[in-house]
Amino acid sequence: MKKPEMRSCLDKIKPYVPGKPVEEVERELGLKNVIKMASNENPLGPSLRAVEAMRSNLKKMHIYPDGNCYYLKEALAAKLDLKTDQLIFGNGSDEILSFLTLDYINQGDEAVMVKPSFSEYDFAMRLMGGTPRQVPLVGPDFSYDFEAILEAVNEKTRLVFICSPNNPTGSIVKKKDLDSFIERLPDNVLLVLDQAYIEYVDNEDHPTGLDYVEQGMPVILLRTFSKIYGLAGLRIGYGIAPAEIIGELNRVREPFNVNAMAQVAALGALKDNYHLERSRKLVGESRKQFVEGLSEMGLKPVPDQANFCFIDLKVDSREVFKAMLQKGVIVRTGDIFGFPTYIRVTYGTEEQNKRFLAALKEVLADLK
Ligand SMILES: Cc1ncc(COP(=O)(O)O)c(C=O)c1O
Q1: Which of the residues in the chain have pLDDT under 70?
Q2: How far is the CA of 93 from the centre of ligand 1 (A)?
Q3: 23 three-state secondary structure
Q4: Which of 137, 196, 267, 276 has its CA 20 to 30 A from that of 225?
Q5: Is residue 201 in some structural domain?
């Protein structure tokens, strides 16, 4: 076929393979009651206040959304004690990752990130012809090795991605470690602190990062309504950074990047502390349920502060994935993160967790 040649920097990008949708698995395998524990969604669903807000705005969908997310920005700024010019919203926090590389990455520029971590950092870098540099997490708890990260930073580095809690390991950074890391970062490097799961953290040593923004440091915090707020289907996330950085990100933002339904739902969700607390409590209980259930199988998850855990099964996780699918449980295999014997599992309701544990026990027994 005659066509323009694709940009060469895209050669290394493979289309993203998402967790399998429930409906697809049910259709393909002729199953009912399939559960998806693969995409770190909230099993309790969205807040009822978000649902109510969407319902009462249904008849306004012929109007373009507010490109500035005015009401949402006001509400979030008040909640976090920030100025509205320190906030930017995206079509998911994924979109803000793209803004970052559009703004700051020229061909050949580098970004440092850890391995394993969220795949979109690599993707956003490659999209602009940038080079991702991966530094391994260390030890059985997948801890951050800040000395090694600093060693990977060089004169070409523009961005450093720190994900805490980290996807897929659930491990976190400590505030004092991050404080001294930032001090040692060169001036022309922007620290991207991805906090998609921060609402689940109960460790008091974890950094909020808000003080860095307040002090005008070159830092952006990324958060989302997809996880604890249960609004993944609507696509809305946000960035918190000094106003100068937000101004630069706004240059590459489409005028109506966040849809109107997402804006009203997020505003409703922000008002619902009950839903937030319930979701947080469920994750704490699930973590306990998993640790107990897995220990009966001689397994130990990586200690996490998120709504999922990463488990080394010591066998090929793609085999486990296929067998679990037959039992109507969708999990995520570790090979996509470079850890083929691990699975990543999103905590579900108590009942779903039980089903997962029972299915895993059977599957592992069959594979041995
Ligand atoms: C660490 C991390 N960052 C960002 C995202 C993207 O979230 P959003 O749905 O807001 O694009 C995810 C989603 O899985 C994630 O795990």
Answers
A1: none
A2: 6
A3: helix
A4: 137
A5: yes
